[in-house]
Amino acid sequence: MAWIGRRETSFYPPDAVDAGAYLAALPVVWAKDVVAVAKAADLLVRSGAFGLVLVDLGVEPALPAHASSRLAGLAKQHGTAVVCLTDKDARRPSLGPLVSLRVHADRRTFGDGRYRCEASAIKDKRGKPGWTIAEVCRGPDGLH
């Protein structure tokens, strides 16, 4: 797994550890803009060394169409999942037609430091969109 983010996004290492990542082997790339993000993603996917590349695009999500197309081809060639994280309303458009799965995530306070986390499929090229999965989780220390 590798993580790429723009400078205005955040990466919280304890969450990565809780998800099973081994931090000593986790590349974290900070990019100055979307062009640098696309270049870093291209290099990491092209290497064939990662099964998962997370691309955190933040609140102004965009990837040039040629970069999306290139990443999709490289991901297929190397058996890599490229996951783009964005911070936007579910009604706003997707990153483009090459997105195979688009999920909107929502978190609501449940009480006692617990949260109801819900993911709903808006687009699913391999199945039917509209599915939802929900779980009640305890937030990490400091999350309010």
Question: What does this 3D model show about the protein?
Answer:
24% of the residues lie in helices and 35% in strands. The model has no long low-confidence stretch (mean pLDDT 88). The protein has 144 residues and is an alpha/beta fold. The chain has two domains: 1-89, Rossmann fold, CATH 3.40.50.300; 99-144. It has a four-stranded parallel beta sheet, covered by helices on one side. A three-stranded antiparallel beta sheet has the order 5-6-7, with no helix packed on it. The chain has helices at residues 13-18, 34-47, 65-78, and strands at residues 2-6, 28-31, 52-58, 81-86, 101-111, 114-124, 132-138. It has three helices and seven strands.
Low-confidence stretches: none
How much of the sequence lies in strands comes to 35-45%
Our count of helices gives 3
Q: Kindly identify the CATH topology of the largest domain.
A: Rossmann fold
**Sheet bearing the most strands, described?**
4 strands, parallel
* Secondary-structure-derived class: alpha/beta
Please give the domain count.
Answer: 2
How would you name the CATH homologous superfamily of the largest domain? P-loop containing nucleotide triphosphate hydrolases
Number of strands: 7
- Give the overall form: globular
- SSE string, helices as H and strands as E: EHEHEHEEEE
Q: Which CATH architecture of the largest domain is right?
A: 3-Layer(aba) Sandwich
Proportion of helical residues: 10-25%
Q: Kindly provide the name of the CATH class of the largest domain.
A: Alpha Beta
Gap from first CA to last CA: 28 Å
